[in-house]
């Protein structure tokens, strides 16, 4: 029988009407823990005296307290479809083929959309695709969701309608026609046949009309040379997969040289097959991405590079042009490279990035003499068309007052022109100026009409990246704002009633290669091989004269040579407001949120310039003033760069933008001010100035310090002649008093992993160029937050995937190993390793992508007190975010240091005013991946949402998963073929064959973690 006794804990409970009793009954915690007060504010948190132990006392390990402290999120009500669109299935991604062509980056891509929102860029691998996306292209989807975009047109700084704009422009054009004033259209390289046709039709009505093409980062010298030889303004294309010997003088062809996109062909021939691989020799001033990947890199000043080029020309063509002597080491390297190139014959290729017509002419002559298979003038690239002389003439015409109407699209000359002040002043003399721009940038803010332009993902268009390749740009979302394409406007202003879509649909059939319009839009690409098989007969005269002029180059006495370049992450600066790219670490310096002057250690010492680390782990440095032709940049920070040629300095373009930018994005200095005469090489004066600059550098260690079990490397000779056990050595341990391979010893109980799927990721260090496309793709797919410069300085970056860059202390990594092995004794070893932290003047470089290794015997899983991290049967290490209480034990126990702790709530927090802090920016978030809250650990999941989607798709279609059907964000983004993901239980998957390769090894394999990520020994062709 149940008891009717009444139990009570206090006398107050005997009072049935007491409000205190009701409050206590309904509240587990009498006083709410004020977590928002100190966890939501980074300043209060950093100044708090609350210890970690006390904090855990307050919140405990209970689910309720953990939820209160770390996992509580706002409730957002969803509104369902009233009528569901037929083409949208909730929870299932749609993909649309399109093309990016912003004047600097060109690529054939697929756009992943969810419920009508574009959220990610992927490669288009169909036949006819020409260039794979780079890091900037992967990040470009975020640019569409920028809150600083122009949301409607403006006339004289005031919001206006398109009817008002049309009326104003048509009146101005009529006035120009009546008065005989000049009408000019200024664009970047569109590479669009339909746009060029529309511009030509528009200008036919106006006498003296000009279409001026302006590339912010000029390739004008190379275009002039190609036009002089082949009679067409274009650039030769290259296929580095057809080259056994590559010699480059100042050409960063793995970066942005002549449009980029060469890494896929390059990577194919860098993996040793049948004992062979290509050999790459690089002569350059700055340490570039291409130079870092070379087998042999020789630092030379710009003047010395010109001498080297003439020497190669003499050796290959048999010419005898007199050239000043280089120092013995450089001369030997040049002669050896020239002889190897000549011996390779048609399997050799020569490229140069020098901004000199004569240098570009000699490159053409050398490749023609070699009959290079990799050199393809017939399939010329159309991605650069700018004419520096025409731009200079336009500025002069504007200053003279002869330009009545100036219509600009895809350009920002007030920011990018070296004489931008002159242009801005001359713009005042133009009666009508129109700028089609996504933002009210430096130029649009000074024009009569700021015409709001759509993002390329909201636009129609066509692109001819190279002869024989035609592609279509299609909108993947309705325009977010009241925008209009320049093509639609020009059609309207020229009296053509057609929309641009209708015009394009009729125009594109002549380039479609027989495809219907619907098929062309579906595929995004079409190819016509016949169009790329013929080239004009090259002119052969003038090469000797070009060589003589190049050989007569003289360096300015007592001055430095400045080499301006574009960073892999920032390019020409169009996407300077993109937080993914600002936080993207430069592959070479590993610094983000900045540009800086790179300088050799010897020159830095002579100038009294320093770099040093401070208590919080941040890197600091000195300032210098930089002066070119009377123009000066004050307080430019300096990074001491191993491999920088003595007597030279480097500075990245694309930074220092101010208009149309959030305050957090205004970083760096505008190097375009020093881009005199559109030449990347300048004579510069430097002087140290007072001050201390704070860098956001995420890799403070510089060298490998001889730790050969992290990056394994060998030479092609050893790879061919020695057993794999010598160059891919397995660590030995003592077991029963006998030395046995560490991989055979297991302290854990194993289980059968042969049933179902078992995922592995292969990373080939030979093919990895360090480009970072995988880093940005991971950002997009997995909702990785941006934390800003201040947090990066505290080593709190949230990248799930990092690309470590290591230098050698000796001239080669082989020398490092020898130095390490010859060291004995505790004190001697300590001194040696301390010394080895300093890189050589011209170090070898290696890139190593590192993410969670998904260990089958994971050290993190055993130390988690709440079982937030555990192992899945398919080989993935799982994270249950709502269980994690942020002890960080797992991070301490991880030998690979790949776990990231959410110090703050990065979403909807005014302290982190990036894309996650506004409704528009959050549209890019992937709904398949949770946005992590503060106080939890996160790390690479091997894109579990993607693997499960592939399994479910196959299940829905009633079939097994096909071979090579699985992929992750990083493996999909890798254009060089370095990363391959798959199921090792499927014998037909590429990753299975890669795992069996004798070059494969596990990172820190001797500690017994048994990772599901494996690497391939790097082989150098010495």
TrEMBL record:
Taxonomic superkingdom: Bacteria
Pfam families from the UniProt entry: Fer4_11 (PF13247)
Record InterPro entries: 4Fe4S_Fe-S-bd, TAT_var_transloc_signal_dom
Gene3D superfamilies cross-referenced by the UniProt entry: 3.30.70.20, 3.40.50.740, Formate dehydrogenase/DMSO reductase, Periplasmic binding protein-like II
CDD domains noted in UniProt: PsrB (cd10551)
4Fe-4S ferredoxin-type domain: residues covered: 759-789, 843-874, 875-904
Xref: PROSITE patterns: 4FE4S_FER_2
Alphabetized PANTHER family for the sequence: GLUTAMATE SYNTHASE [NADPH] SMALL CHAIN, GLUTAMATE SYNTHASE [NADPH] SMALL CHAIN-RELATED
Record protein name field: TAT-variant-translocated molybdopterin oxidoreductase
Organism: Flavobacterium rhizosphaerae
């Amino acid at each position: 029988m149940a008891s009717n006794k009444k139990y009570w804990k206090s006398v107050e409970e005997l009072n049935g009407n007491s409000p205190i009793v009701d409050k206590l009954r309904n509240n587990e915690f009498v006083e709410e823990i004020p977590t928002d007060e100190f966890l939501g504010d980074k300043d209060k948190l950093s100044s708090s005296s609350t210890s970690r132990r006390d904090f855990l006392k307050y919140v405990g390990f209970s689910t309720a307290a953990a939820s209160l402290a770390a996992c509580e999120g706002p409730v957002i009500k969803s509104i369902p479809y009233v009528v569901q669109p037929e083409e949208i299935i909730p929870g299932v991604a749609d993909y649309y083929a399109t093309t990016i062509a912003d004047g600097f980056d060109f690529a054939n891509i697929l756009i992943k959309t969810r419920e009508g929102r574009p959220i990610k860029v992927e490669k288009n691998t169909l036949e006819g695709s020409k260039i794979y996306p780079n890091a900037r292209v992967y990040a470009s989807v975020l640019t569409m969701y920028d809150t600083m975009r122009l949301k409607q047109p403006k006339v004289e700084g005031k919001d206006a309608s398109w009817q008002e704009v049309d009326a104003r422009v048509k009146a101005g054009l009529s006035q120009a026609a009546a008065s005989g004033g000049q009408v000019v259209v200024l664009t970047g390289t569109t590479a669009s046949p339909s746009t060029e046709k529309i511009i030509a039709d528009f200008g036919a009505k106006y006498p003296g009309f000009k279409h001026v093409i302006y590339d912010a980062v000029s390739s004008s010298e190379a275009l002039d040379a190609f036009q002089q030889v082949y009679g067409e303004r274009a650039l030769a294309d290259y296929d580095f997969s057809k080259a056994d010997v590559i010699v480059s003088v100042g050409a960063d062809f793995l970066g942005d040289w002549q449009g980029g996109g060469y890494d896929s062909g390059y990577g194919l021939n860098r993996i040793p097959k049948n004992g062979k691989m290509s050999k790459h020799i690089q002569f350059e001033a700055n340490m570039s991405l291409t130079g870092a990947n070379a087998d042999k890199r020789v630092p030379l000043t710009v003047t010395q590079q010109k001498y080297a080029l003439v020497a190669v020309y003499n050796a290959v063509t048999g010419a005898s042009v007199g050239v000043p002597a280089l120092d013995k080491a450089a001369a030997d390297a040049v002669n050896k490279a020239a002889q190897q190139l000549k011996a390779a014959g048609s399997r050799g290729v020569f490229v140069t990035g020098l901004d000199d017509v004569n240098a570009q002419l000699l490159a053409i002559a050398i490749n023609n003499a070699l009959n290079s298979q990799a050199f393809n003038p017939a399939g010329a690239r159309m991605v650069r068309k700018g004419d520096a002389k025409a731009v200079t003439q336009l500025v002069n015409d504007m200053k003279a007052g002869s330009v009545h109407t100036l219509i600009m699209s895809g350009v920002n000359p007030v920011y990018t022109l070296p004489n931008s002040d002159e242009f801005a002043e001359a713009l005042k003399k133009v009666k009508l100026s129109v700028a089609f721009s996504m933002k009210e940038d430096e130029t649009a803010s000074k024009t009569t009409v700021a015409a709001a332009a759509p993002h390329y993902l909201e636009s129609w268009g066509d692109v001819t990246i190279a002869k024989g390749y035609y592609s279509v740009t299609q909108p993947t979302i309705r325009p977010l704002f009241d925008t209009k394409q320049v093509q639609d406007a020009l059609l309207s202003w020229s009296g053509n009633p057609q929309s641009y879509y209708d015009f394009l649909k009729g125009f594109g059939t002549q380039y479609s290669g027989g495809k219907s319009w619907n098929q062309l839009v579906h595929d995004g690409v079409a190819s016509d091989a016949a169009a790329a098989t013929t080239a004009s007969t090259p002119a052969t005269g003038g090469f000797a004269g070009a060589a003589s002029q190049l050989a007569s180059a003289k360096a300015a006495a007592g001055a430095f040579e400045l080499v301006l370049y574009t960073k892999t992450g920032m390019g020409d600066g169009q996407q300077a407001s993109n937080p993914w790219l600002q936080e993207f670490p430069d592959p070479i310096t590993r610094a983000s949120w900045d540009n800086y002057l790179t300088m050799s250690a010897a020159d830095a010492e002579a100038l009294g310039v320093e770099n040093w680390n401070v208590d919080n782990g941040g890197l600091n440095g000195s300032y210098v003033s930089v002066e070119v032709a009377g123009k000066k940049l004050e307080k430019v920070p300096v990074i001491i760069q191993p491999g920088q040629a003595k007597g030279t300095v480097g500075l990245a373009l694309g930074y220092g933008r101010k208009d149309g930018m959030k305050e957090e994005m205004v970083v760096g200095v505008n190097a375009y001010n020093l881009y005199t005469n559109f030449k990347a090489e300048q004579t510069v004066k430097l002087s140290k100035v007072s001050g201390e600059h704070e860098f956001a550098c995420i890799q403070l260690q510089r060298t490998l310090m001889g730790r050969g079990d992290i990056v394994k490397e060998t030479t092609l000779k050893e790879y061919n002649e020695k057993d794999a056990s010598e160059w891919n050595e397995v660590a030995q341990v003592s077991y029963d008093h006998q030395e046995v391979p560490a991989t055979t010893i297991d302290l854990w109980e194993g289980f059968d992993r042969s049933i179902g799927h078992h995922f592995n990721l292969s990373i080939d260090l030979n093919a990895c160029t360090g480009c970072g496309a995988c880093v940005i793709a991971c950002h997009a797919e997995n909702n990785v937050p941006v934390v800003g410069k201040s947090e990066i300085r505290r080593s709190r970056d949230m990248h799930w995937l990092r690309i470590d860059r290591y230098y050698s202390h000796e001239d080669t990594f082989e020398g490092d190993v020898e130095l390490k092995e010859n060291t004995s004794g505790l004190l001697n070893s300590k001194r040696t390793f301390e010394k080895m932290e300093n890189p050589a003047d011209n170090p070898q470089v290696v890139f190593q992508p590192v993410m969670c290794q998904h260990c089958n015997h994971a050290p993190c899983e055993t130390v988690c007190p709440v079982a937030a991290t555990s192992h899945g049967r398919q080989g993935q290490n799982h994270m249950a975010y709502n269980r994690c209480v942020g002890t960080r034990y797992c991070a301490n126990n991880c030998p690979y240091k790949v776990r990231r702790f959410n110090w703050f709530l990065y979403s909807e927090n005014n302290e982190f005013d990036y894309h996650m802090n506004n409704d528009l920016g959050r549209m890019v978030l992937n709904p398949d991946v949770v946005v992590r809250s503060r106080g939890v650990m996160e790390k690479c999941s091997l894109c579990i949402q993607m693997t499960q989607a592939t399994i479910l798709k196959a299940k829905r279609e009633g079939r097994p998963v096909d071979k090579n059907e699985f992929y992750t964000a990083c493996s999909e983004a890798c254009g060089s073929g370095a990363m391959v993901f798959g199921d090792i239980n499927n014998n037909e998957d590429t990753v299975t064959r890669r795992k069996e390769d004798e070059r494969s090894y596990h990172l820190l394999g001797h500690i017994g973690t048994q990772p599901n990520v494996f690497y391939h020994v790097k082989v150098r062709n010495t």
